Structures are given as structure tokens and as C-alpha cells.
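Technical note accompanying the year-one report. For the benefit of new consortium partners, we illustrate the data format agreed upon in the data management plan: each record pairs a sequence with a C-alpha cell string. No post-processing was applied to the example shown here.
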Amino acid sequence: MFRILIILSLLLSVRALLFYSQDQTFSNNQELRLPVIFETKEKIADTFNKILPSEESALLLGIVFGDKGNFDRGYFEAIRRTGVLHVIAASGMNVTMVAGLIFAVLAYLMKRTHALIFASFAIVLYSALADFEESIVRAGIMAILAYGAGLFGRQNTSLFALFIAIFLMVFFDPRILIKAGFQLSVAATLGIILLDPVFKKLGKNIFFEDLRTTLSAQIATVPILLFYFSTYSPISIIANLLILWVVPPLMILGILASVLSLIAKALAVPVLWLALPLLFYFKGVILLLNKYAVEFGTEDIPAALTLGYYFIILAIISWLYKKLKIKI
């Protein structure tokens, strides 16, 4: 595996050099969207908007598809200040839940092999509906690799799958490396992969799953957030702990309502009504915590300091892995 990583890294370096020498520009995600995908998403959004209040509709569309275009400015700012903007941005968590839900349903209806294949196609379709956002594409590739490993009876590791996803995305468009969304997605995923086992070992009864995930992602992404946006709110840890548990049921209800709305709008009504109490809860928590949110700002953080932070974190993780006898 190590040799494969070395070869892929060399290929990536050559690709990046050729790309930059030609002075090409970023590809636009919107250009990848087919008319049928646009019409499908518009039909789903129209159903949500007619059945739910405007802010709740915007929130559910944000959670399911990463659509941030319909938010009231004040509500959106509250979500940003409390550090849960990632919930309404298309993220790897969306793909994980979509892939898991679809595979679970298909596994009951057909052979496991066929379920893996159809679930992979479903991930591609969902990525298109989410406008091929960097985090969605990254998670989608990792999920398809996991399904492929299951299909051919091979062992799959999250770290290797992450590297392959990075390789494919950067090979397609090397300039994605300097996009904040891509960097945050990769850093958060790497943080969860490397730090979650450490928190499991350090405190089985203290660090429950949501807290482990939140802390792992926060530790891995804080320097990037400060580098690009110059602000960070510590209350985001509390906000994430209070609202992350509602995201999976909202994703499930949102996906189910989306599918039913394409058949008949009336079928989606009871499902969206079920989601309404959770949407109200989400909004209530965010507006309450927003009153106490304090943002710490910094200006002009050197890139070398950010890189230094990650070298220190990796050194600490390496030491903890040896001390706690954790295998990658």
C-alpha cells in the first residue's frame, strides 16, 4: 500500500505541475449540473417551501442538499456564529447517512452485491443534487471505495480511501487544493479518522460518540478556520453537542420527503410534518446560543504557523498511538 501511495503522489505532482504551467482556471460545479438534476431539485424545493415555514424549509434543504440560498440573513448569521454552519453545508456526514440508508433499504430488497452497486449509483446522483460540493465528492468517493471493497471482498481502510479521494479530486482539478471548503473537509475527516480512536482509549465513559466526533473535527479544523475567516467561537462545541443528534433523523425524513415529493406532493406532507418539531428545536437552540456566542478574532495568521500546528498535532497523535497501542 505504501508503494501505491508513493506512485500516486508522484503522478499527482506531475499533474499539478502541468496544470499550473498551462494557467487553467477552476471548474465550476454549476457547469456539471444537468438540466434534469436542476429540475428535480427545484421540484423538491418547491414542495418543501409550500409545506414548511420559510426558515424551516431553508434549514431542511440546507441539511439535505447543502442549499444555503433561501436563508434569512439573521438566521444564517446565527448559524455561522454558533459554529454549526457545516450542518447546512453539503458534507461528508450527508453522504454517509444517505449511503447507509439506501444500502440498508436495498439490502432487504435484493442481493448484497446488487445493493452495493445501486447504492454507488445513488451516491453519484446525490452528489449531483448537492452540486458536486468538494466535501460531498470526497465522501462520495470514499463511500464508493468502501462499497467496492465489499463487492470484491477486499479490506478497506478509511485513511487509504481518503488519500484516493484526494488524489482523484486533485488530479481532476489541482487548484482545488487552495479552496477552503476542500481543506476543511479533508482536515475534518482526517481529524476524525486519527483522533477518534485516541478519545475512545482515553475515556470510554467520558467521550461519547458525538463529543468525540466534534472534538476531533474541531481540533483538526480550527487553524484553517482562523487562517481563512479570522474568527472562532468556542460555543460551537456546545452547539454541536445539542443539535447533532437531530441531524440524522432530519436527513432521513428529508430524503424520504424528497423521494415522495417526486411521486406526489401530498405523500411528502406527513413526513415533513414529522420533521417540523426537530426543525423548531434546531432553530430554538441556535437562536438561544447565539445570544451568548463570543467570537475570537485574529488577523494575518502566517501559513507557517498553521503548518506548524499540524506538525505538532501529528507528533502528539503518533506518540499517543504508540503509548496507547493503537493500530492505524
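Partners are asked to follow this layout when depositing records. The chain is about 75% helix and 0% strand.
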